[in-house]
Amino acid sequence: MKRITSNIGLFSIATLGAAMITAAAGAQTIGIATSGPGSITHSSGSALAKLITQDTGMQARVQPHSGNSATVPAVNAGEVDFALANEFELQFATTGTGIYKGQKLTNLRVAGIMMPLRTTFFVQKDSPIKSIKDLKGKRVPGKWSAQKVIGFIANGYLANGGISYKDVKMVPVPNVVRGADDFSQGKADVFFFAVGSGKTRQAGAKVGGLRALPVDPSPEAMARFRKFLPVVYASELKPSKVNYGITEPTYVAAFDLTLITNNKMSEDAIYKIMKAIHGGKKKLFASFKPLGANFSPNRMAKKLPRIDYHPGAIKFYKEIGQWPPKG
């Protein structure tokens, strides 16, 4: 009798295991393209992938790339399902302007607004460099061959301070991660990154702490910035555990980070994913505090001129009263 029971038990376990493997194999796999580890998009994408996997029954995985100049075209081509991109790069991509001049990416669709993306130049905490203008003659990352859109932000930041790349010693880098590495290795006097990224803490640990350089919020200075980046606005940040490198109330440059997809994704999948994200603020905060703290479930849809939302996202936003967008 014991032997028969044992065999039945083994059969049941084997059957259950096979069923679990079959279910996992049958689950839809979702790819989220991001920049490299340590970047704000990689950390945010990892948090979103975990949430999607837990709450939708789909299997979501992060797929690191060299930068947005690679992730955005990959989403358009259907090589990956999602990416995190700032709103002005998305504007360039969908209209075939700026860094995408002559390369209009017509398959891109917006899934939702994830959070304001706040960026700045960082220096060593005890550096004599106190302002953007003080970067004159200093070693500043530039070129951005794998993240070309960063060039618009960096040029805008310098213009905000009344200088340009002609006034500094450019250190060519492919992306922001390399820029941070060069700074950590003493090859640059400053580096550009999003506030709250893991890479900033890593860099700060190597040089004894960081301090963000403030953007000038005056109308005149911001007008100079907007010649390069029309959607930018000044956002004041205060010191906190999330805002590493903000040592006192400091204005930085901000714009929105969007979750983008393509027109090949099914309406049902996008609907389920956006519903999970809408209700997942606490889980996002637990996975990556900067995303969870800045994500607003009540602001997932906004007006984006000349950019289409995915039908699945629109269906969900209509259901929760966010469509059409009010601002």
Can you put this structure into words, describing what you see?
With 327 residues, the protein is of the alpha/beta class. It has two domains: 2-115 and 259-319, D-Maltodextrin-Binding Protein, domain 2 (3-Layer(aba) Sandwich), CATH 3.40.190.10; 118-255, 3-Layer(aba) Sandwich (D-Maltodextrin-Binding Protein, domain 2), CATH 3.40.190.10. Helices cover 40% and strands 21% of the residues. The protein is built from twelve helices and ten strands. The strands form two sheets. Strands 1, 2, 3, 4, 7, 8, 9 and 10 form an eight-stranded mixed β-sheet that branches.
Layout of strands and helices, then pairs:
Blueprint (H helix, E strand, L loop, with lengths): L1 H25 L2 E6 L5 H17 L2 E6 L3 H9 L5 E5 H9 L12 E17 L14 E5 L6 H11 L8 E5 L2 H9 L6 E4 L3 H10 L2 E3 L6 H8 L6 E5 L12 E13 L4 H12 L2 H7 L1 H6 L16 H9 L8
Parallel strand pairs: 1-2, 1-3, 5-6
Antiparallel strand pairs: 3-10, 4-7, 4-8, 4-10, 9-10
